[in-house]
Design a protein that fits this description.
Structural class: mainly beta
Radius of gyration: 22 Å
Strand order of the largest sheet: 1-4-5
Distance between the termini: 48 Å
Number of strands: 7
Order of helices and strands: EEEEEHEE
């Protein structure tokens, strides 16, 4: 017999939401868990808001230099992304190729990867 506090999922197999996030440009970016109760605020404001978000103990946040971002603002600012294949969409990508001569290296800058055409529905 069930009690009023029981919860039932009426969807037979609910889809699992992909909650992973990625850092497209890792240089200088660190991910932290706020471990203290000191008042610290997010570096940016969300559009339409006139306040900074308070970072609270236990919260996961992203830091780029002295800038600290809550995950929502880091997503909005492009510091992190939900795009799993972000690496295919970089503006440019550098590769290093060592020549036969061990004293020199060649640096090639590859052009941006073409975006696949979108189909109209």
């Amino acid at each position: 017999m069930s009690s009023p506090g029981d919860r039932y999922d009426v969807t037979p197999n609910p889809p699992i939401e992909d909650r992973r996030v990625y850092v497209p440009h890792i240089e200088g970016v660190e991910v932290h868990i706020k471990a203290d109760c000191d008042k610290e605020y997010c570096y940016t404001k969300s559009p339409g808001e006139d306040y900074y978000h308070l970072l609270v103990a236990g919260e996961i946040y992203v830091q780029r230099g002295h800038e600290k971002f809550c995950l929502n603002c880091a997503l909005a600012d492009g510091v992190i992304t939900r795009d799993r294949i972000h690496w295919q969409r970089r503006e440019s990508m550098m590769t290093y190729a060592r020549n036969d001569d061990a004293e020199t290296e060649t640096i090639r800058v590859l052009p941006p990867v073409e975006q696949p055409p979108t189909t109209g529905s």
